Structure prediction request, 290 residues.
Amino acid sequence: MLVLVAAYGWWASRRDPVLPWRHALGLGVGALALALLGGVSSLEGLVEWVVVHAPGGGLLRDGQKWVAPWALVASVGLAAAVAHLRERSVRRTQSGQAWLVCFLLAPVAALPSLALGLGGFLHSDEFPDQWHDVRAEMERLAVADDLVVVLPFSTYRRFDWTPRTILDPAPRFFPGRMVTEDALTVPEGTVGGESALAARVRGAEGADELATVLSEAGVRWALVHRSSEEFTLPTGARVVEDGEQLALWRLVDPVGEDAWTGEWRPVAYAVLDLLVLCGTVGVALRFTLR
Prediction:
């Protein structure tokens, strides 16, 4: 329904479009094509090769990310539809007023759970107090620039303080650069991740080998979730903070350099972001000042 309304908005604003319609069409259709690429059986081999071997190719693994450019184009069409219906409503035509009311109610009709969430049916879960205590201890120890491996080494977690199975929140809650599992398990098997360090941790057999892998990678800490999952603790680890929910362990002094050491990386990423930003602004000004 929203797609049809967006298409109507683009049609209604065809004489004075917000964006050049040819470029917008190319952006929207191109993004949808990339999103659907992984679902084409004849291209599975090509997509798998790009994901496994090409730097950054993992972006094709989760096709839903490519819907974002199409959503941008659709949002412009939705805004144009609202503006057109508003003009008709201002002229006090009955049809314009009715269509405007229907459009304003469309998000609730399309997403009834949104109304339920606003009514208190959906709610967030609070992190236990010990999570805050461990975070404070990690901040006191100045862990922000250190590598921290999260154990058990898995992508999703089940906690007794939430009924949901959720993506491990540790990388977003605690300081430090977290080493986590990035492989995706699906019914058909496991899709390999992109982190070479995560792959070495995943393949380590036994506490001694795991300790060697982490030491060579420059990992100094281990954050352990208390759960029913079996895991291996690296040899030589010493407990720093222990509780019912979490435990923080200090690993043996690493013998290798930090896997992410390199002052050039932040500078390179900043320059790349600046170039993309300047290019985007330049393209926008080019079409605006025509």
Observations:
- The two ends are 33 Å apart (CA to CA).
